[in-house]
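Hello Y.,

Per our agreement to keep a running log of every chain we model this quarter, I'm adding this entry. I've kept the format consistent with earlier entries: sequence first, then predicted structure.
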Amino acid sequence: MLIYRTNKEILYHILLWTVTLLSVVPGLVTQSYGAATAWCWFKGDYYGYIWRFASFYVPLWCFLLFNLLCYLIILVKVGITFRHNWQNKPERRKILDRFLLGKLIQFPLVYISLW
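Predicted structure for the entry above:
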């Protein structure tokens, strides 16, 4: 049976295993894995606290900033399109702006409330 792999699949594997190794190896090198409090697998020592912070808060803030950047790009692009298309109808543009803003604000609110 011939297995067909695309270039994207290989790229995804490279990305996945690189991120996995980069997140696991530093904890192994500093011997930070072991018995710890409650649910966390890092010890309660100095390096354990560093890896807890690095493995949770750094990705969290990176994804949050990435989402904010995407939202800003979307708002700018849609704003330019609305201004161009609804230039002569400001009352209609206000309704569409309010509708779009209402839809775009829902995802960050859910994200913040579930965090």
